[in-house]
């Protein structure tokens, strides 16, 4: 087998890392090395910064409609290569190719379409001081910015940052996760074909400690938009705080689902199951702590168990696969460690909890059964720490207040869901849930105009719509006396 050797995309061209260093890229479904990823460092960052500096004056002064046309053409380029990108994403990440085809890649295209429109609609404020003066606020591009993304939704989250950064008139140095670099590498060519001028977007590969840190710390990088783990976010924030860079952090979650006896039972089972195990539970928004009103606890539990037993992990590249592989061996071992801890802390594993060995091509892949655990205290490790795998815990509750208190008993604050037909209760609880996003009777229903992000250890700042356009611009107020 010939290895798929990836390259950085700098100044509109693919180029090898200056240091010649590479990291193995492993296919999670087979456990086999199938490619190599540059492990870039300061030297590559310098090249990318020089290219971005050359490109910046023309890009930030380009008429908005022309900039929007280019972003729209990138979206069309992604759509034109849907099947190829979906296959690459499934191979790289282990997610079902059907999921990549229906969700990840179309959403990457939507990100560019959305911000192509957003930049033509983005307006700034003016404040009139009666008979005295008028203030108007300019929102100007920051210059060169960094976009750093994780492995779970590779192209989806990469483009969710890059599209608004470009739309706002910045040049970008972007780094995908070294664990899932393939579709990000392909994006360079798509942008080139779409007419994005050389140097406006530079895609560097490599580990966080080498490439990621070099990008974030470069003095010419004015802002960092980061999505990833909470510990990494803390490390980046502590490095960048004294440098006064703008920072947006989208971090981990431990998302509660509050399920009431008056919910639409069948629909709730269906949706909560999807919220728990989509993408093998590796979505920052996945429900992981399920609180179920006591009167329906047993019935709801049995319905979830039946669905979990029916969901068998399989080769992600097969069209009918609903559950693929976990992203890597270390990640699978981490998830298994949490399940062991749950057992030690008194949890009862109702279903799953074991690795699955498939036959044939995938015999060495990283597959895990959907896992449901009950009997753990809310203070148990598996109820407090992010597992980021196909593992959920169940707990009964008896009143709105108790459910709310359990849901809010967390250092995280990303997303929550409420399942009830009593809408006044849903509104009341939404106000008091400590999460940046609340979904009522749905999950992952996204309107790209809305603020997206978490509170507490789930992050700082919001992405999406105006929030992203504001993050990627510097406001400057001009006061004119009459
Ligand atoms: P990670 O923190 O290990 O890595 C994320 C990215 O940061 C990667 O590209 C990595 O190379 C880079 N990185 C690592 N150390 C760095 C450093 N010191 N400086 C600069 N860059 C560095 O996270 P992961 O394991 O790839 O992703 C899983 C995590 O991401 C989970 O915690 C999940 O909840 C979180 N996540 C959050 C959201 C959200 O929107 N809140 C979305 C998806 C994933």
UniProtKB/TrEMBL annotation:
UniProt-listed PROSITE patterns: ALDEHYDE_DEHYDR_CYS, ALDEHYDE_DEHYDR_GLU
- In this protein, the active site sits at 250
Highest taxon in the source lineage: Bacteria
The signal sequence is: none
Q: Among its keywords, does the record have Oxidoreductase?
A: yes
User: Which UniProt keywords are present, listed alphabetically?
Assistant: NAD, Oxidoreductase
> Which InterPro entries has this protein been placed in?
Ald_DH/histidinol_DH, Ald_DH_C, Ald_DH_CS_CYS, Ald_DH_CS_GLU, Ald_DH_N, Aldehyde_DH_dom
* Positions of the Aldehyde dehydrogenase domain: 22-478
Family membership, please give it.
Answer: Belongs to the aldehyde dehydrogenase family.
Q: What is this protein called?
A: Aldehyde dehydrogenase
The record's annotation in Pfam families points to: Aldedh (PF00171)
């Amino acid at each position: 087998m010939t290895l798929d050797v990836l390259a950085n995309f700098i100044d509109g061209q693919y180029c090898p890392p200056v240091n010649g260093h590479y990291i193995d890229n492993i296919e999670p479904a087979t456990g086999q090395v199938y490619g190599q990823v540059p492990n870039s460092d300061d030297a590559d960052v310098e090249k990318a910064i020089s290219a971005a500096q050359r490109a910046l004056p023309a890009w930030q002064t380009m008429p908005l409609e022309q900039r929007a046309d280019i972003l729209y053409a990138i979206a069309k380029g992604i759509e034109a290569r849907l099947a190829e990108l979906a296959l690459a994403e499934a191979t790289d990440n282990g997610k079902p190719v059907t999921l990549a085809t229906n969700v990840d890649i179309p959403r990457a295209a939507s990100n560019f379409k959305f911000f192509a429109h957003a930049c033509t609609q983005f307006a700034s404020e003016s404040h009139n001081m009666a008979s005295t003066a008028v203030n108007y606020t300019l929102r100007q591009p920051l210059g060169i910015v960094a976009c750093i993304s994780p492995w779970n939704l590779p192209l989806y989250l990469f483009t969710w940052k890059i599209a608004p950064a470009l739309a706002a008139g910045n040049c970008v140095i972007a780094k995908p996760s070294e664990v899932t670099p393939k579709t990000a590498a392909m994006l360079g060519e798509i942008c080139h074909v779409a007419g994005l001028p050389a140097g406006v977007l530079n895609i560097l590969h490599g580990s966080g400690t080498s490439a990621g840190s070099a990008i974030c710390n470069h003095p010419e990088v004015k802002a960092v938009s980061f999505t990833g783990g909470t510990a990494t976010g803390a490390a980046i924030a502590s490095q960048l705080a004294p440098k006064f860079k703008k920072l947006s952090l989208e971090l981990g979650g431990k998302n509660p689902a509050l399920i009431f006896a008056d919910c639409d039972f069948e629909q709730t089972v269906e949706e909560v199951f999807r919220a728990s195990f989509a993408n093998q539970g590796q979505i920052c928004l996945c429900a992981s702590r399920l609180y179920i009103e006591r009167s329906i606890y047993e019935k709801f539990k049995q319905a979830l168990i039946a669905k979990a037993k029916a969901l068998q992990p399989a080769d992600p590249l097969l069209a009918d696969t609903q559950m693929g592989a976990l992203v890597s061996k270390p990640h699978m071992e981490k998830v298994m460690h949490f399940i062991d801890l749950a057992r030690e802390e008194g949890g009862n594993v109702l279903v799953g909890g074991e690795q699955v060995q498939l036959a044939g091509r995938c015999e060495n892949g990283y597959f895990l059964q959907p896992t449901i655990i009950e009997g753990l205290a809310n203070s148990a490790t598996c109820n407090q720490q992010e597992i980021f795998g196909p593992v959920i815990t169940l707990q009964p509750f008896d009143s709105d207040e108790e459910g709310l208190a359990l849901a809010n008993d967390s250092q995280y604050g990303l997303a929550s869901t409420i399942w009830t037909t009593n809408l006044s209760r849903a509104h009341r609880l939404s106000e008091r849930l400590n999460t940046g996003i609340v979904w009522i009777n749905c999950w992952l229903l996204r309107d790209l105009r809305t603020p997206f992000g978490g509170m507490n250890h789930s992050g700082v700042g919001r992405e999406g719509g105006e929030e992203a356009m504001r993050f990627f611009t510097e406001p400057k107020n001009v006061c004119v006396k009459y």
